[in-house]
Amino acid sequence: NTIYKGQDICLGGFDNYEQIGQPWTFGFLPVLALGVVGKLFNITAINLDMLMTFLLPAILFVLLYFFILRLSESFSLAVIGSISLILGYSIFTANVQIIKETLMLSYSSHLWFLRPISPQFNHILLILALILIYESLCSNKIFLSWVAGILTGLLFYVFIYYWIFVYAGLSVLFFVFLARREKLCRRKIFTIFFLSVLVSVPYWLNFWRLLHHPHYRDLEYFLNVINSRRPILPVSYILSSSLILFTYYKKEINLSFWYIFSFLVGGLICLNQHIITGKVMFPGHWIGYSNKTFLIVSLFVSLNNIKEIKDNAKGHEEELTK
Concatenated DSSP letters for 174-214? Predict the structure, then answer.
């Protein structure tokens, strides 16, 4: 509605501030993109919402399919994994009650990715950024690193939890390649960081204005920002991540492993960033929006690892019996 009324949300926060010219507090890119599409094609806000409810989950399904396929190299697991994420995101949980109801076939909940705009639209940009980062590391085409860097920079204008998650994973991956003395991969990650920082300059200028806003402390209270340095160590996440990485023990430790390892560790770093910053805001958002998605993707990749280990063991036994 803000776009339809012609208000400039890039200059004025459409979420918490009414005055044009005030710093924006949430990423405006998704609202701006969808609003412009609706206004350009003369689609009412209600019809636009219905149209996006049909199109965006389908686009996300294709991206998730390609993401899992590239990491696992398994067509069947890519299909099953992407369908599971789109239709059953809520049942991938450590909540005993939900698990019990799911097993009893009595659990019902809304489809997570039907919720507009976040995560319905936002998740598309996150998955696309993760795909491009992996593709840039696999390929010698430098333009992939440029595109990955630009898209990562755009995440600053989408959701704070997304760009921090990507930055944490990339940082771990950079130090992995530093230890392994892989200069080319380090250069690619540096390129992604450099371009994303350039794209994010307006974000940081706005953030500087926001820090000096007279009502900034009130805004922190409104957004439930808490002063804490207490570690957050979810047992289910740590155990699941460990089991996923363990499935590589009889496989070659390749780029897929280090990529998954880095972003799983990066997710844990995100949950505990407040140990350094001293401030935490809705830490469950990392679990629900970024960590959980990547964990489920990694889970289906690990299933392919288990299948390959079993196939190799079976082939070895057949050779011994000959």
Answer: HHHHHHTT-HHHHHHHHHHHHHHHHHTHHHHHHHHHHHT-T
Identify the helix (H) or strand (E) that includes residue 270.
helix 255-271
Number of other residues whose CB lies within 10 A of the CB of residue 14: 22
Q: Phi-psi bin for 19: left (phi > 0), alpha (psi -120 to 50), beta?
A: beta
Closest CA to 52 of 120, 101, 135, 131: 120
Give bridge partners of residue 225 from the DSSP assignment. 281
- First-to-last alpha carbon distance for the chain, in angstroms, is 72
**Could you write out the DSSP letters of every residue in 274-312?**
HHHHSEEE-THHIIIIIIHHHHHHHHHHHHHHHHHHHHH
Both structure tokens of 67: 């993401």
Collapsing DSSP states into helix, strand and coil, what is residue 80? helix
Count of H helices and E strands in the chain?
15, 2
- Tell me the C-alpha distance between 213 and 40, whole Å: 34
Are 223 and 283 in contact by the 8 Å Cβ rule? The answer is no
Whole-model pTM? 0.88
60 touches 27 (CB < 8 A): no
Q: What is the mean pLDDT of the chain?
A: 84
Strand partners, 176: none
At 14, is the pLDDT very low, low, confident or very high (cuts 50, 70, 90)? very low
pLDDT in tens, 138-148: 998 899 999 99
Question: Does residue 187 carry a pLDDT above 80?
Answer: yes
**Peptide bond preceding 283: is omega within 30 degrees of 0, i.e. cis?**
no
